[in-house]
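Bug #77: duplicate submission created two jobs. Keeping one. Sequence:
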Amino acid sequence: MIRKVCVVTGSRAEYGVLRPLIKEIKEDHGLKLQLVVTGTHLSKEFGLTYKEINQDGFKIDQKVNIYLNSDSSFGITKSMADELVGISKVYLKLKPDIIVVLGDRFEIFSAAVAAVVVGIPIAHINGGEVTKGAIDDVFRHSITKMSSFHFVSTNEYKKRVIQLGENRKRVFNVGSLSIDSIKKLKLLSKKELKKILGFKFKSRNLLVTYHPVTLEKNTAGKQFKYLLSVLDSLKDTQLIFTKANADTGGKKINCLIDKYTAKNPDKAISFASLGHLRYLSMMKVVNGVIGNSSSGIIEAPSFKVATINIGDRQEGRLRTKSIIDCKPTKKEISRAIAKIYTKEFQKKLKRVRSPYGDGNAATRIKKVLKTSKLKGILKKSFYDIGIKQKG
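Kept job's structure:
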């Protein structure tokens, strides 16, 4: 009997990571792919990125609009409630055998809660990670407790999921799906990017991706202004901004980006979404990635590209020597930018190796999704470390 695997995606970045797995599921005759799209994919403000999914040749089975009109705490809570109602109806209609979710976003949390209530087992990707500066930490660990299968990217994260009481037999270190994309996508050259995006590279080029630190109150605008002030002082440097996500404070950052790029078209350009292929291609050719996105921690090291990680949004993730952590102050950001161009740091970059796997995560995940027994899987026991377990 063909197993129905329902993949839920709610944002541009998450879809880019999931894409290799979606492709694997679609091409397997023993599985039926069901694709549910929600979150910022359906928002004009964030680039209507569901169109990218269509362009990749994937059929979207259902869309769940969560009306991201406000990034206030109340607005996001309402969006979560809208998704609970909408995606529950979708699950009851599609009747999947298993739900696949990735990460830690609020829309993915709602998707997981609905699956638990409807009674569908969950396979969770990227559990066990830590981001101390973001509310995502709470959502991620909660999704872990709701899930029956866990696909993590390192042994350290595997241990953490087991520490949360999950059966070690259902926790799999498969590596990061992000590395699959880097290994298997045919990335665009600098010349191709220039033609497609319509701007000129300079002798130095920086990719800027900055999101709100959601466990801090009203810091988004202030900290981003510090970053803009430093970037504005750089000579012969092209700035490529990708806009912030739908977290509280994201609209403020995006407004500042719009004002800055409008005022400085000769040295700055911004995108609501570059799309996964163009984003990774851009990352490969720039001198550095600046901001507080997980892509600077996970993807950038594979390209041996410098990352300036500002603040503590990503504190807790595994790091390589290509990453420079700094506080969100003008002085620290300036020092970090200067450091990436030094001969000593450039030598370090050449020796960097990613700790996030070999690029075969999608194949490993698909095999588990296809072959694992699902009968009785929802009746979970708390896995106590050090105590002999049954089954």
